[in-house]
Amino acid sequence: MNKIHLKDKDFVPYISYEQLEKAIDAVAERINHDFKDFDGIPIVLCVLNGSILFTGELMKRLDFPCEFSSVRLSSYEGTLSTGITRKVLGLTSSIKGRTVIVVEDIVDTGKTITDLYALLRDAGAANVKICTMLLKPEVYKKDLKLDYVAMEIENRFIVGFGLDYDQLGRNYKDIYILDTDKKPAKTMKHYLIFGPPGAGKGTQAARLVERYGLRHVSTGDLLRREIAAGTPLGLQAKSLIDNGELVPDSVVEGMIASELDTHPDVKGFIFDGFPRTTAQAEHLDAMLAARGQKIDTVLSLAIPDETVFERIRHRAEVENRVDDTKPEIIRNRIDTYHAKTEPVISYYKGRGVYKEVDGLGTIDEVFDKLCALM
Ligand code: AP5
Ligand code: MG
Fold it and tell me: Are residue 153 and residue 301 in the same domain, yes or no?
């Protein structure tokens, strides 16, 4: 096994085909054992594209009657309502009343597999078993039971045996890992500026960027740009933002992924207004880990709700944000913060990167406190 080069990245050998074969032998044996006396014909469901090679290898080893089908999951779409907004695409057999063995290449945060599980149950599957070739236990936080796991791996970015980097690398029979030794990204330092609406995240981020040469990314600003440009995403997000509601996690996660991909050479990012839910925080960790990176420090600005009101009312006089105009909308933004965003604090406390400053005082005073933490 030699190093491989895909687009702008080098990958080094990680799991050999021989090791994979052994792990697949073992997992197939467990499935064969469980289905030995099964009264019926299960459907082996390959989740495209990543699990195509794994499904082939697995099916060769299954020794009970089974059907085959394949699916893809649509990316998030629809009306930005809450709940599942993905669709199962290309399901050829009816699964009503059937037992389905879902075959995945890899499970990391578990978002895709839990969505798929719910969608298959909604479509009438009597029983859904999950079989994954690889699992990243460090980042898997869902309650859904994974019935068959061939191999557990660390939280690193991998390609090969069906897995891709920007659609490349699926054809290699061994699995490779990003060669982080020579990655400039290893020296990147990422920060979060955290706090309720009007805490001063944008104000302080602009100054921190100037002093430390970081790249500022505010999901609120990105969304307002989409609205101003009248894009489909902007049109969908507008009413939610104007009412002080959050847009769905997948929308902002997509924006952040695109920022990370398009600015690989920056010293680091300062994320403002993201993550805003624990699911977003988990997703961000997974995205950074895939690049061999992590959050260095969460800089949290603590201010009471009354100050939020004052500051936002003051800003409404100079800026033109629809969500700043009505007290009931500001109230809803604050309530949404307490209900959905505050839990992110314990997530980062648990990771030992959370630091809080008093957000009251002048802009300069708060800035000095933040600099002391950097
Ligand atoms: P976003 O744009 O992020 O709004 P926000 O979190 O409500 O925060 P603000 O931008 O209002 O406040 P800020 O903390 O940046 O304070 P600022 O520096 O301006 O998000 C908007 C919407 O987009 C959300 O409601 C949601 O719908 C959606 N969205 C965004 N991200 C999302 C995500 N990840 N997931 C889902 N949905 C998402 O300061 C406020 C004012 O106070 C200014 O006038 C400033 O000059 C003044 N000020 C600042 N510091 C001080 C100080 N120390 N003393 C006196 N005045 C000060
Ligand atoms: Mg802001």
Answer: no
Q: How far is the CA of 199 from the centre of ligand 2 (A)?
A: 8
For residue 180, CA distances in Å to 64, 146, 264, 285 come to 43, 30, 13, 17
Cβ atoms 194, 272 nearer than 8 A = no
- The answer to whether residue 286 is domain-embedded is yes
On whether both 169 and 285 belong to a single domain, the answer is no
CA 200–ligand 1 middle distance (angstroms): 6
What are 54's two structure tokens?
Answer: 């794994």
Domain that holds residue 278: 189-373
Which pLDDT tens digit goes with each residue over 182-218? Answer: 444 457 899 999 999 999 999 999 999 999 999 999 9
Mean predicted confidence (pLDDT) in 254-274: 91
Q: Cα(217)–Cα(211) distance, rounded to whole angstroms?
A: 16
Pocket of ligand 1 (CB under 6 A): 195, 197-203, 218-220, 223, 240-241, 244-247, 252, 273-274, 276, 280, 311, 314-315, 323, 333, 361-363, 366
Do 165 and 195 fall into the same domain?
Answer: no
**If DSSP codes are grouped into helix, strand and coil, which group holds residue 151?**
strand
- Give CA–CA dist 330/285, Å, rounded: 29
The rounded distance, in Å, linking the Cα atoms of 141 and 145 is 11
Task: Give the closest ligand to the alpha carbon of residue 276.
Answer: 1
Q: How far is the CA of 371 from the centre of ligand 1 (A)?
A: 20
